[in-house]
Specification:
Order of helices and strands: EHEHEHHEH
Number of strands: 4
Shape: globular
Strand content: 5-15%
Largest sheet: 4 strands, parallel
Structural class: alpha/beta
Helix content: 40-55%
Strand order of the largest sheet: 2-1-3-4
Radius of gyration: 15 Å
Length: 163
């Protein structure tokens, strides 16, 4: 049975696609690509159908990640097929939990940086959209740091399903 993870930010052109591609790479490195499906979406549809921000693409490619992406808006009906919905900041967390059709669905929503023990109380991944390239580099660092803990949590769930 496939474990499905969806990363969500505002417009699905910066943070969530970055998290999607980084985590997909971690899943592949762990040999779990047949068991874990990874995608992303935005809380809004402003950029639906567009590619990722060119700065996101540049940072991903400079660091060895794939970056082919088309933005889309998160739909509440997706909760039924998703196992984990990963929000990139507290605003996304609140918006997604409001969209959740059931309490069980709301419990599927987690903040990405909650999987990074070094993050402390600062669990938001800041939006790099209005800044320069350094914001995209910082975003990637945060995403990469959290992806290891997220992979451990997902691996535990996947192995638990197989048992």
């Amino acid at each position: 049975m496939t474990y499905r993870v969806c990363f969500v930010c505002t417009g699905n052109i910066c943070r969530s696609p970055m998290a999607e591609f980084v985590f997909r790479a971690r899943v592949a490195e762990a040999g779990l690509e047949d068991l874990v499906e990874v995608d992303s979406a935005g809380t809004g549809g402003w950029h639906e159908g567009e590619g990722a921000d060119p700065r996101t693409v540049a940072v991903l490619r400079e660091n060895g990640y794939e970056a082919e992406h088309t933005a889309r808006q998160f739909e509440p009906s997706w909760f039924g097929r998703l196992d984990l919905v990963v929000a990139l900041d507290a605003g996304h967390l609140r918006a997604l939990r409001r969209l959740a059709p059931t309490e069980r669905d709301a419990e599927k929503v987690r903040l990405l940086r909650s999987y990074d023990p070094a993050a402390g109380d600062d669990l938001d991944v800041p939006d790099p959209y209005y800044g320069g390239p350094e914001g995209f580099d910082a975003c990637l660092e945060m995403v990469e740091a959290a992806s290891h803990g997220l992979l451990a949590a997902v691996r535990e769930r996947v192995e638990g399903r197989a048992a």
